[in-house]
């Protein structure tokens, strides 16, 4: 198997739904990032051999192909859209790395994009003539209605089962916002301006009092203070794009920024209980660690998905992750959650964080998705 390198990784700002990106299509979001990646590496867009893209809300078709063509990638190059919900953006890295490792390609564009603001309006076709179509917000994630909770309800179940209080969730969220605001200058290095947006605009000076006033989204039991999920502890719906260029060793030697490349080490996809998606990360990370004889202390950088504060708290506790290494410049609670792009954003963050670490340092990325899926990846600073 050939070694694989992440030559460059960039993203747009993350903007909450119906904000500054509300009129932008997925191609509008993606194209500037792709062109900047090529400029930073010295590669031509026509040299990209494959495109693998995560997207969850486009509503059909193959947005990876649209984006590839809009960016100027030759028409004879393949492009594939992945929909593993929140995991899709990070799954694209694993599949792209496999293409290079097995000799199928030397330059692969991977990542994710989500225009939540422009997502399709979903309707079930009526069974009988003259009956109205039935609108729905999301597809089923399991075949069992009794085991297919909405994500907020699943998070509430996790909070109840593990005794994670609303105040603990607020503490995590407040710290995520604080780190993002403090790291705004550093974060700008990974953001390609689109529609005048250079910063993640959702981050704010969150306080316990403000957090306490945010509305509840899910409550497991009205008579119990456990099992509560509110807006402060939930990542906002958002729009964004995030991409990276994966290259072979032969290509790496020709790049203008070869000294910044990090090595793709490995990735793993897996699943857990289908009705408990917020907890799916733990068994998949543990399986990866067992395979490589790793433990939490082996990772200088940890990018952990924060779809819900309770999810991040649960996963970090069970995996005994060092708090000071998790989401050093904040997470999705302070950015927002553009579903198909969120895993790719973790990878972009990890790539840039590794630039600040010593040679040999490793980064761990982990994200869970609807239906009880999870995706994990590891980079190394070479």
Automatic annotation (TrEMBL):
Signal sequence extent: none
Keyword field contains Transferase: yes
TM region positions: none
Domain named Thiolase N-terminal: residues: 4-202
Keywords per UniProt: Acyltransferase, Transferase
Domain Thiolase C-terminal: 279-380
Entries under InterPro entries matching the protein: Thiolase, Thiolase-like, Thiolase_C, Thiolase_CS, Thiolase_N
CDD domains membership: thiolase
Top-level taxon of the source organism: Bacteria
Family stated for the protein in its record: Belongs to the thiolase-like superfamily. Thiolase family.
Name of the protein described by the UniProt record: Beta-ketoacyl synthase N-terminal-like domain-containing protein
Organism: Saccharospirillum mangrovi
